[in-house]
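Model it.
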Amino acid sequence: QMQLVESGGDSVQAGGSLRLSCAASGFTFSRRIMAWFRQAPGKEREGIAHIRQNGDSTYYTDSVRGRFTISRDNTNNMLYLQMENLKPEDTAMYYCAIGGAGLTSFGGVNFGFKGQGTQVTVSS
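Modeled.
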């Protein structure tokens, strides 16, 4: 079955950097659009970045554009999110998601969640 394992979350100071990783298994990773979502306490889960199957096209929401970079390694079935200049409002649980595997819409694609997420906490 489809499985995602997120890692790399941590507690950092504002202005710091983190790199999140997502290990995928149980499906043909290279054929799926992939995305990163996040959910802050008391808020709905929101999509923040997605990447096309071959990695040549990416999309970011305004809140992270210019600070976060999504990338993928189709050889090793890995998805990444490089986060720079982190802000306290970036504090959230971060999830990777599989295109076409669920009902959560983002950028015209429905995504599904198959992992537990990784916590990012940014202090001022």
